[in-house]
Amino acid sequence: MKLLKELIHPELSSRNGRVFRRHAARGIVLRDDRILLLFTERYNDFSLPGGGIDEGEDIVVALKRELEEETGARDVQVKEHYGFIEEYRPYWKPQFDLMHMTSHFFMCDVALKLADARMESYEVANGMKPIWMPVSEAVDHNRQVMARQEGTMGQSIQRETFMLEKIADELVPA
Is the pTM of this model over 0.90? Predict the structure, then answer.
């Protein structure tokens, strides 16, 4: 497993204190220069599909579940572990001072046609939708959101933009 980056959120003053630990699995699904992403209206950003790994859940099982729920992907084939990001950021629950998230990224293939997504209520409320789009357009969009420091900007945009840039540089045909 390859560490891709360690990210410390700019609003986090220290990595000491009571830490909420979370592990996530995220899919990189490419078709030529297009990638399967989630657009979240609330945060005005693009992100890779995936999410938290439940207690005792196998990481590949979690990734397949998340891809199916969030994008409607079918016949998910997890091909290889691309790398992981260690992320430290503020956490909103009062019993914790910060969150330490490890996000694992996997190369995946899915069936050509997506079924209907089965998102959780908060994902629907945030206006989350699956979309195929050129990687470069997603990178440009997220960079503009960060440059404007939009008030609705989510905490994960740095991680997602870093990964989209890396994918554009290393995985998308020139």
Answer: yes
